[in-house]
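User: Predict the structure for this protein chain, please.
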Amino acid sequence: MASYNIIALLTCAINYLNSVNGSNPTLNDVLFSGVYEFIDLTFPFDKNTIYWPNMDQFAFTKMNEAFRSDGSWYAANNFAAGEHGGTHIDAPYHFKVDGLRVGNIPLDKLIVPLIIVDISSKVNDDPSFVLQKYHLDYMLNDNWGKPCVIVFKFGWSKFFYDRNKYLGVQPNGTFHFPGLSAEVAEWITSSHKNVVGIGVDTGSVDPGSSTDFPVHKIASAAGLYNIENVKLDVPVPDRGCTALILPMKIALGTGAPLRLVAICPKQTPTHF
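Assistant: Here is the predicted structure, written as structure tokens:
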């Protein structure tokens, strides 16, 4: 239904702009007509950013911050970080020797319709939850075969600033948090060829307890990228949004920090 709503909204916006401008509207006219909003689905990169254990943590070094002799301000800093931490993208090369690296992922796979699959009520904060196909008792997406990215909402973003809770750190150093099953990954890559990427609001598309990472392998083998640690602590429509998936263009990267933005039709408040 939301897909039809966005079409209606877009049609209304175009008709309105046509009546005002008397000409064909540009994309800017449509995007900034007041019908759409931009939602940031990215956690900031700072001392609290969660990284996989073998990755360098985010390091921010203040080098120069001062007023110059002429009274003007100048600031320039250094940062360093591993590829796989915070809100980030996994390139297919991460688990496929001849897969695309970050710098080679084409833009037509990074600016695509966004499908949100909210399974948080089924997860119910259970770190042992693994998504199986039978949990998805509805059509996974209705994007008419067009390219899209699917992001699964486990309801885990609320734990992001508590590393132990978010990752489910165990006494032996292993992790325990929800993820996708190999069955779901196989289903997506075999039955939904239009899906170009998979996202989650957890530390990995595989469950935290996984040691062989089958979902990563299945997705990479099919040429899909993964998006991990998506910030989903704000309402986002399940359909009708466009994802701007904009990683740092690390030419040979296996992954990269990501600025993830959803362009969505403005929602009418239902509670006041």
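DSSP finds six helices and twelve strands in the chain.
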